[in-house]
Design brief:
The chain is an alpha/beta fold and 146 residues long. It has 4 helices and 5 strands.
């Protein structure tokens, strides 16, 4: 019987925080154990774009430059292993994008808290949202310096 075996897909949210870098390293190790692939998702959103106020920032975002920076960050964190990681740069709300990316994934990996919010919070708003709404198991990785 010829059946196509799906390769496990490990999705990881990366936002430039040390916590997300820990999540990235965890995702790569896990994917290696289960023979899976890693998809690093970085989300950008323009502050002030939604709500009552007008945009607070320049609307022009150089997506190619942002992709290059993301690839460079992954290389700094993972070294040669970064070449095996697929990257996605997506515009939108981080929690919503990651929940959508979790569809069909083996696991979604996020840091315990990102670049914003309260440093003393146990879980950031994005990690809290994805643990409640993702379509797959979620691993929350705590940063070593928290």
């Amino acid at each position: 019987m010829d059946r196509e075996v799906a390769v496990p897909r490990v999705v990881v949210g990366v936002d430039g925080s040390s916590s997300s870098y820990g999540a990235l390293r965890w995702a790569v190790r896990y994917a290696g154990l289960v023979g899976g692939t890693v998809e690093a998702v970085s989300v950008w959103e323009l502050p002030g774009l939604y709500g009552w106020s007008g945009p607070a920032v320049d609307m022009d975002v150089d997506q190619e430059e942002a992709r290059d920076r993301m690839r460079q960050e992954l290389t700094e964190v993972l070294g040669e292993e970064a070449r095996s990681v697929t990257t996605r740069l997506v515009h939108g709300n981080a929690a919503d994008v990651l929940v959508r990316a979790s569809a069909g994934a083996e696991v979604l990996v996020v840091g315990s808290r990102g670049r914003g919010g309260f440093a003393r919070a146990l879980l950031g708003s994005v990690s809290m949202q994805v643990t409640q709404h993702a379509d797959c198991p979620v691993v929350v990785v705590r940063s070593q310096d928290t």
